[in-house]
Amino acid sequence: DSGVTQTPKHLITATGQRVTLRCSPRSGDLSVYWYQQSLDQGLQFLIQYYNGEERAKGNILERFSAQQFPDLHSELNLSSLELGDSALYFCASSVEGARGDYTFGSGTRLTVV
Amino acid sequence: GQNIDQPTEMTATEGAIVQINCTYQTSGFNGLFWYQQHAGEAPTFLSYNVLDGLEEKGRFSSFLSRSKGYSYLLLKELQMKDSASYLCAVRSYNTDKLIFGTGTRLQVFP
What we know:
The structure holds 2 protein chains of 2 kinds.
Chain A: E1 5-7, E2 10-13, E3 19-24, E4 31-37, E5 44-50, E6 53-57, E7 64-68, E8 74-78, E9 87-94, E10 103-104, E11 108-112
Parallel strand pairs in A: 2-11
Antiparallel strand pairs in A: 1-3, 3-8, 4-5, 4-9, 5-6, 7-8, 9-10, 9-11
Chain B: E1 2-5, E2 9-13, E3 18-26, E4 29-37, E5 44-49, E6 53-57, E7 60-65, E8 70-75, E9 84-92, E10 98-100, E11 104-109
């Protein structure tokens, strides 16, 4: 157990639907990062939150949104889902400025049918 | 922006040594990371370099040259379980976000 918890582990949904992915960071970590990994692709940075505030944005689609709550857990909302959104979605957490201490959750595998 | 390049695939023999290269172009560099990822699993941290030189950690070593925008990961005494993807990532100075290369898939044969 890495200390970063992601739920659910698997999600199958239909095109056009909306889903919410949840991430609880490791205790003490203030930063949360979301990544998308399509089949045989690298990790694409989506968005970063630090202590409840958006810190950085990557190539995140307008149909996607995220937030970090006061208890530091984060949710990634994906709407109007398309087949191409099928991917592994990883959450990572870190203490700001940490030396190599980015810990990943086990991911949520989203399948859009 | 940031651009990170790694070879797509490499093969090696059990017991051998393999070097995986990574070149990067970035503004605001604040460290280079190597992660290992088995298929369908979470990436796990291997090494970190922020200053030039070699960092050694058991069978794994990583080297960084900031002036050349170049790093490599050296794996010694390869084992079958080392078959995985190896991801090079650069940390942004302003935000601490990690930007990953596409990864190098390493296959180790007996």
